[in-house]
Amino acid sequence: MGKKRFWLQALLTFCCILCLSGSSFFAWAGDPSGTATGTAADVQTAKGEVIIAPADSPAFRQQQQQEPIAIQLADAIGQNRIAVNLVWVLVSGFLVMFMQAGFALVETGFTQAKNATHTMLMNFLIYVIGMTGFWIAGFALMYGGTSVASLGGTPPLGENHEFTINIFGKSFGLFATKGWFLGGDTYDVGVYAIFLFQMVFMDTAATIPTGAMAERWSLKSFAIYGLFMSMFLYPLFGNWAWGGGWLASLGTNFGLGHGYVDFAGSGVVHAIGGMCALAGAQRLGPRLGKYNPDGSMNALPGHNIPMGILGAFILAFGWFGFNAGSTLGAAGGGFLRIGVIATVTMLASAGGALSATLYMVWRTGKPDPTMIANGLLAGLVAVTAPSGFIGATAGFVIGLTAGVVVCYSVETIDRLGIDDPVGAISVHGVCGILGLLCVGIFADGTAIYGGSWNGVEGAVRGLLYGDGGQFVAQLIGAGVAILWGYGVSAVFFSLLDELVGMRVPPAVETEGLDIAETGVIAYSNYQSNQ
User: Between the CA of residue 177 and those of 26, 87, 181, what are the distances in Å?
Assistant: First the structure.
């Protein structure tokens, strides 16, 4: 009865929120048909230079009078360019959404058979719960103050919807205020496209703790966590980095390079998810049987390594959308760099897997398939932030570094008594921080993206190319990611554990979570004594 009452209360609360959202939820004034998105103003050269004068200028009106057919053709060209970008963003989002299948296979394969259904269900439900929370509030807090020029400008959004404070004459953005429930004039083709893309990124961050906290986490507390991540923890840091917030303004406010730069989310997605996973795993404590009274460790091997390896391949495939899709366009503004980004991403994954293989052979005499898979993923995580600003050699070197770092990190975290069944803290948290620092080291100044980044003219350059300020900005961003992701999560999990309880009873953990938590066992021929 306790569980039924909890879920009923949750459903009733959600229905009340929908009703209280009022008329703005059911009204619309954006461009849901797409007929007004993409105009002559969106025609650009390959470098991102605007060809047609602004529509409200005398020069445009003069052109319109003298060459009306040319202006109509320019409208069609402008919409075609925006259409190419819109399709690219959507397809990239679809690829990132498919990464959820990869996460599910990796985490389930690397855990014990008696918990397979439970682990798979968490990976399934986080997509549903996270999407709901992001739709209600997360997107509005994160992205409501950001217009996306490559998608037609997303006119319903913009900097006038960013809540800011002024300190010493400098403006610091804290959160946005537009886009709740995607209601009102955010019923718009561009806004909906960017919502989809940003939602699947959030879902990646949200699913990371499900691996680190697997095999002892109750579904009830997990569901509450899903709303915490999607409506609060992820969106606020995402706003500071990508939504026009204060981290992105470190360049314009203090001259620190281009401010905090995180091209596709080593920090926003992976470090935040990994630091949250660290706090959660610490609060839950290790699985039963993981550690002996003297502190020595016992192996609790995964039940289906081929499943986990397949999941790693699926993640590597989806990562092409993750990194290359983060241009938010493929036409104009230097966006053809997507080919470079995709190749750099691929090479980093190879570097990570290769160095992890060599490291494990050196340490144990044998190549551990689970660590090789984690090495591949570590390379991908570490290259995610710098992928838009580097070439092939830097990408491979970053991957090589991450592959060794993740192996050492997994060993260290185990020795510290923190039980992470799949290595998620090391892959995403530690290598996510590494990726942020790599921007400040390896960014080579060749990416133009319309001529500026975070409001600072010119290309992003790291230490090796003459900009020490960029490295300082990355250090600040990395420190904030650790403090925010770990610190706030530690407080949240402490409260959640005290109020609701996070861990299943010992008897359930010993027998397996599948029957007690889901009512369905993964393998009909499984015996608890296997």
Answer: 18, 27, 12
The CA distances from residue 457 to 232, 399, 448, 461, 485, in Å, are: 32, 29, 9, 12, 30
Q: Which domains does the chain carry?
A: 92-143+197-518 (1.10.3430.10)
Alpha-carbon distance 170 to 245, whole Å? Answer: 12
Q: Pick from 163, 31, 85, 64: which is nearest to 449 by CA?
A: 85
With the C-alpha atoms ordered 327, 329, 332, 338, is the resulting torsion angle positive or negative?
Answer: positive
Neighbours of 297 (CB within 10 A): 13
Alpha-helical segments (H) within 447-526: 468-482, 489-499, 506-511, 513
What is the secondary structure of 299-363 as a DSSP string?
----S-HHHHHHHHHHHHHHHHHHHHGGGS-SSSTTGGGHHHHHHHHHHHHHHHHHHHHHHHHHH
- d(C-alpha 136, C-alpha 140), whole Å: 8
Nearest to 179 by CA among 138, 232, 127: 138
Q: What tens digit of pLDDT does each residue of 383-406 get?
A: 999 999 999 999 999 999 999 999
Can you read off the two tokens belonging to residue 367?
Answer: 């190549």
Structure tokens at 387: 């992928």
Asked if 258 and 468 touch (Cβ cutoff 8 Å), the reply is no
Structure confidence by residue, pLDDT tens digits, 56-107: 778 777 777 777 777 788 888 989 999 999 999 999 999 999 999 999 999 9
